[in-house]
Amino acid sequence: MAYPFQLGLQDAASPVMEELLQFHDHALMIIFLISSLVLYIITLMLTTKLTHTNTMDAQEVETIWTVLPAVILIMIALPSLRILYMMDEINNPSLTVKAMGHQWYWSYEYTDYEDLNFDSYMIPTSDLKPGELRLLEVDNRMVLPVQMTIRMLISSEDVLHSWAVPSLGLKTDAVPGRLNQTTLTSTRPGLFYGQCSEICGSNHSFMPIVLELVPLENFEKWSASML
User: Fold this and answer.
1) Which residues are within 8 A (CB) of 209 and not within 5 positions of it... i.e. 6 or more apart?
2) What radius of gyration, in Å, describes the C-alpha atoms of the chain?
3) What is the separation of C-alpha 109 from the centre of its chain, rounded to a whole number of angstroms?
4) Sign of dihedral through CA atoms 158, 108, 125, 169?
5) Edge-to-edge strand list for the sheet holding 142-145
6) How far apart are CA 120 and CA 86, in angstroms?
7) How far, in Å, are 74, 97, 184, 213, 227 from residue 143 at the CA level?
8) Average pLDDT, the chain
9) CATH architecture of structural domain 15-88
10) Separation of alpha carbons 110 and 159, rounded Å
């Protein structure tokens, strides 16, 4: 999760988030180079009175400043499209979980099990134990197996919500009457925190998401104890 005064993105815990981090660095480097070039040209124009008459009305210069931006846009668009298709791809999920947004809590249903569902409410600040995070802890965590493809079905029962977990590169809108889906795969076990990312009313800030990614044998023990 994020720490105070953090400037960058959270550490990646899924292949999609790793790709998003690489694309972020790729696009940021292009922006940095363009900004440096523009700043250099502006500084040059302000500090010198010399004028090169041949470049003020040259066909070659116009060709360069037309073609070069197009090439740069292609360099940004191609990796972006690749990641978009990767995020929409769903390959034989091992588990399906349905997340329903409510005002103001989440409910989860493991559709591969006959009767495995529960509500997930934020723990009030007065009930927190030492070491727990304010406004981020819940009474029932969503437990999932690590290194397995999981399909998330996301919807809402009242207003617009958004199910977002930054470390996994996930952010999917929960729309009443519509079932959105996304793929979740974690490369390492751990606790991953998220929050509703769509303003949904007065308690929008109080419906966190906590994913506990555990090895498969631990998940099987947990699911057996919940049934």
Assistant:
1) 106, 120, 138, 142, 163, 164, 165, 193, 194, 195, 196
2) 24
3) 22
4) negative
5) 142-145, 208-214, 190-196, 161-165, 170-174
6) 29
7) 40, 10, 12, 6, 14
8) 91
9) Orthogonal Bundle (1.10)
10) 22
**Nearest to 172, CA basis, from 69, 93, 101, 72:** 101
Q: Are 141 and 211 in contact (CB under 8 A)?
A: yes
Is the pLDDT confidence value at 51 over 90?
no
> Buried b vs exposed e over 111-129: b needs ≥16 C-beta within 10 Å?
eeeeebeeebbbbeeeeee
Q: What is the DSSP string of 9-39?
A: PPPP-SHHHHHHHHHHHHHHHHHHHHHHHHH
Examine residue 106 and say whether the peptide bond preceding it is cis (omega within 30 degrees of 0): no
Helices assigned H by DSSP within the chain: 15-47, 59-88, 216-226
Based on the number of CB atoms within 10 Å of its own CB, is 174 exposed (0-12), middle (13-18) or buried (19 or more)?
Answer: buried
Contacts of 152 (CB under 8 A, 6+ apart): 96, 97, 98, 99, 163, 170, 172, 181, 182, 183, 184
> What is the rounded CA–CA span in Å between residue 34 and residue 107?
46
Backbone angles phi, psi at 75, to 5 degrees: -65, -30
Among candidate residues 213, 171, 215, 216, the one with its CA nearest the CA of residue 192: 213
Yes or no: say if 191 and 198 are a contact pair by the CB < 8 Å rule: no
Does position 151 have pLDDT exceeding 70, yes or no?
Answer: yes
- Model pLDDT for residues 54-79, shown as the tens digit of each residue: 666 677 778 888 899 999 999 999 99
Q: Which CATH code for domain 95-226?
A: 2.60.40.420
The domain limits of the chain are 15-88, 95-226
